[in-house]
Amino acid sequence: RAQADRPVVLQLDLRGVVDPFMANYIAGGITQAEAEGADAVLLTIDTPGGLDSSMRQIIQAILNSDVPVVCYVSPEGARAASAGTFIMMGCPVAAMAPGTNIGAAHPVGVAGAIEQKKVTNDAVAYIQSLANRNGRNAEWAKEAVVNAVSIPAEEALQKNVIDLIAPSIPSLLSDIDGQTVEVAGGQT
Predict the structure, then answer these.
(1) pTM of this structure
(2) What is the pLDDT of residues 129-183, one digit of tens each?
(3) Annotated active-site residue in 53, 117, 118, 168
(4) Region of residue 4 (phi > 0: left; psi between -120 and 50: alpha; otherwise: beta)
(5) DSSP per residue, 151-167
């Protein structure tokens, strides 16, 4: 560190589809941040969603990180749809820029009514456990999966789906400076 009094924040960008390449990039970035002793990871998000397995790899990396991960739907016009909604729910800090949206998390690409019901029920249980872990609105999270609801940043803040709205990265980092969050193993 050049200056001991300045926090080190590693920025990663989730842009586009959540796939194995993206999952490896994010998980590797979080591991790098831990190895370098970073104070936080900033994960900017703009995604239509993607693969369940890749989404879960990203969330496991976030949940098992000793470094707090701050998820930020940005820039204006960005979205955290589908898998992005789950990732936001799994972050210790979830923020959105104005003019962004979150939701529409109904599982897709499954054939058969019984399989669809199983996959949906599993997705509901998973997103609710993430929401509850981080003190967010688990009932809305369920609606995002079951009914594919999507809401803008302002409504997400009102409904306790996210923690804050910030117009820029500098304002986000300023707003969360000094905040205490839970990281891996119940550490703060």
Answers:
(1) 0.94
(2) 999 999 999 999 999 999 999 999 999 999 999 999 999 999 999 999 989 998 8
(3) 118
(4) alpha
(5) EEHHHHHHTTSSSEE-S
